[in-house]
Amino acid sequence: xxxxxxxxxxxxxxxxxKPLNDKTVGLYTCGPTVYDYAHIGNLRTYLFExxxxxxxxxxxxxxxxxxxxxxxxxxxxxxxxxEDKLEKGSQREGKTVWEIAQFxxxxxxxxxxxxxxxxxxxWCKATDYIAEQIDFIKKLEQKGLTYNTSDGxxxxxxxxxxxxxxxxxxxxGQKAGARVEQNDxxxxxxxxxxxxxxxxxxxxxxxxxxxxxxGFPGWHLECxxxxxxxxxxxxxxxxxxxxHIPIHHTNERAQNWGLxxxxxxxxxxxxxxxxxxxxxxxxxxxxxxTLQTLIDQGFDPLAYRYLCLQTHYRQKLNFSWESVSAAxxxxxxxxxxxxxxxxxxxxxxxxxxxxxxxxxxDLNMPKALAIVWKLVADSKMPVAGKKQTLIKFDQVLGLxxxxxxxxxxxxxxxxxxxxxEAARQEKNFxxxxxxxxxxxxxxxxxxxxxxxxxxxxx
Length: 458
Ligand code: AMP
Ligand code: ZN
Fold this sequence. Notes:
Largest sheet: 5 strands, parallel
Number of helices: 15
Helix content: 40-55%
Bound molecules: adenosine monophosphate, zinc ion
Structural class: alpha/beta
Radius of gyration: 26 Å
Mean pLDDT: 91
Shape: elongated
């Protein structure tokens, strides 16, 4: 099996991936908060996670991927204050929170299907795991890791000596109130809510009874409860965008330690942000572009996938309309090339080894794409072998290279293309141009490439 290295945020180093057991790799990917459409920044993170899963599968692992749907408890500020995003969505659209959650969950699933992102092995939503979350808090309480305030039950982060490690947090700075809004009842600025009480003067649409009072679970708790419920007390991989490192994942890790006494997650892997106009793309920043916006502008969703593959997942990606247009052109060129390669043959072994090395080097997809284009242009390789190899690569790339039907080109056009190529070789450019024009008049474009002519329907 190929040796896979991944950058582990916990150790801040590239490490060899060694699965906890040799049968199935456990992968938990934080899912969407379903109060609005996902933006293409969010989707970049899901694309990187899809590549990780595909690389693991390409390497021969079975992957159990769990993705949660956050349908309760995610407040507008990550620091346990502000409104519940779902309740906010409900007010905005005049629908119930349950309707909002269902609608945006369906939209999210359509987005990932359009991007050729594999559906997770297990979907789970926070509101289906309330009992598990209450049980989790009870166990933390029994260990003396919680305390109650007037607005909820909190985790006492001072009791976890390793709290700061994942986020490399400077806790002395934070105690001065640098990060979190002041909540005087909290013992430490980094303490976070496990359970929030419903407000006394109004009724929430989503609330549940608990030993501590009516309310709802904290956002971090759902991911701890569901990942452990589905993947066990120790599992291989946990992913998300980099914004999750200092708060969400730091708090998950603290809860997991509180419950199990173990380092539950072996590798934490985080994707960098999509940037627009030099700033973060975000729902709250109000600058977000959805996948539908791209589709409405005439882009194939896979052009966005291609665009993301061009930048390593740990590098910022600056979105522009020019770059997505260029990605679309490259995608069409690649698909056309693969469709034009006919026949059956053994693959191009050297290229396959290079590709395997690139994807296993911390998912180096830009390098993998460079290998793809080198192979497309390599006139020494038989086209049938190229096709075979590129279709194999597509198990990881997911660029729809496998389903391409070669265009049935009429015999007459094939003959014109052959003559045109011969004229070109003889440097009879006038004849070559005339034949190209003749083909165009009959509805087919001839493109001359180092591998011979490619014919496309107009
Ligand atoms: P949310 O729905 O806000 O919980 O975010 C879903 C995922 O998208 C999380 O893994 C975030 O870390 C990630 N994310 C949010 N904004 C961006 C961005 N601009 N670029 C890439 N990923 C992002
Ligand atoms: Zn999460």
